[in-house]
Amino acid sequence: DQQVKQNSPSLSVQEGRISILNCDYTNSMFDYFLWYKKYPAEGPTFLISISSIKDKNEDGRFTVFLNKSAKHLSLHIVPSQPGDSAVYFCAASPNTGNQFYFGTGTSLTVIP
Amino acid sequence: EAGVVQSPRYKIIEKKQPVAFWCNPISGHNTLYWYLQNLGQGPELLIRYENEEAVDDSQLPKDRFSAERLKGVDSTLKIQPAELGDSAVYLCASSSSGTAGRAFFGQGTRLTVV
Question: DSSP states of A84-99 as a string?
């Protein structure tokens, strides 16, 4: 039973435009959410996180939005750059992080 | 600071053979995870250690998989015997109370069972 879902397997965006990656979850006990970025042949690397007490967290070009009532979060990348091309995983935890549940990933391609 | 180190990076074995993966977490990280990642899927937890204690191994197929984390530092994950369906990337990650819930991943071991 997939508790974290990323329904878009892939996304293509022009350089300089906004990339929006979406993630839905089913477990209302999740209260900490993370986004990881993964390049081929490498392990996932942490990108940005958000606690359920917030609805937005921003770090440079990356912003994560959390809608608890809809059990939905999204990652916005503005402006998108070719180096952002990677697979992005959403992850959720029922506490500040000893058990992570991952989505299936969205492959982002930023076209120069 | 050195990251999470895994070896080997790649392994090809015949079915029914044993295989072992090794992980050295980031120094000071008391939590260690082994994840399985199938093609096109997200990482799935196999086992989580808090120091040397396995606190969550509910997803570990115990008939063929085993893991240990002696002295609460390095860890090994073993499969015996391997099956064709075990072909995947095995990821090790570590974290601590000081990493604000972030897990740091190694590069993974890509296992191919033929």
Answer: G-EEEEEEEESSSSSS
pLDDT value, residue B71:
85
- Reading the block at residue B81, the tokens are 């015997």
Between the CA atoms of B108, A81, A73 and A25, what dihedral angle is there, to the nearest 10 degrees?
A: -30
Tokens of A25: 């979850």
Between B31, B40, B42, which is nearest A102 by CB?
B42
CA distances from B73 to A25, A34, B9 (A): 33, 25, 20
Q: Which helix (H) or strand (E) holds B31?
A: strand B31-37
Write the pLDDT tens digit of every residue in A101-112: 999 999 999 999
* B89 beta partners: B37, B110
Burial per residue of B17-41, b for 16 or more beta-carbon CB atoms within 10 angstroms, e otherwise: eebebebbbbeebbbbbbbbbeeeb
pLDDT digits (tens, 9 = 90+) for A43-78: 999 999 999 999 999 999 999 999 999 999 999 999
Task: Enumerate residues 47 to 66 of chain A having a beta carbon within 8 A of any beta carbon in chain B.
Answer: 49
- The residue in chain B having the minimum alpha-carbon distance to the alpha carbon of residue A100 is B45
Name the residue among A42, A91, A104 with its Cβ closest to that of B107.
A42
